[in-house]
Amino acid sequence: MVFAGSVFTHISEMEEAWLLELRRVTRPGGVLYVTVHDELFVARLNAAAPDSPLGRILGRHAATLQELGRTADVISIGRGSKDAQVFHARDALVRRWSQHLDVVDVLDEDFYHQTAVVLRKRTGLG
What three-state secondary structure class fits 3? Predict the structure, then answer.
């Protein structure tokens, strides 16, 4: 099992390459547990912790984040910096990642307020 909790929430460059590397090191049939910021995360954090450091970032970028899942599949705030925050439109993410791995489940608020995506490496892949 590969666990990537709160990793893809900060990868603002070459996300697909990172996912492919995780696929490469996972045995066929192996499971990956990866957390992301998606539309539900944004809504829940805005409601639960608007005064938290990340909640304040969400507030400053509210207009941009409203486009998530509408006109934007990925929004990166602070792109390229060590403090980047990356947000994914859930449906688009599942479509992209399912090209490389089987999506077993998507779990709301499973890792703090983050959404977890459970993936399985297809058998027959080296």
Answer: strand
Q: How many CB atoms lie within 10 A of CB 93?
A: 23
DSSP H helical segments within the chain, as ranges?
15-25, 39-48, 53-60, 62-65, 90-97
Q: Do the domain assignments include residue 74?
A: yes
Is position 125 within any domain? Answer: no
Q: Is residue 96 part of a domain?
A: yes
How far is residue 42's CA from residue 115's CA, in Å, rounded to a whole number? 10
Asked whether the predicted pLDDT for residue 55 surpasses 60, the reply is yes
Output the pLDDT for position 81: 79
Instruction: Please give the tally of structural domains in the chain.
Output: 1
pLDDT at 35: 98
- How far apart CA 40 and CA 46 sit, in angstroms, is 10
State mean pLDDT over 15-37.
97
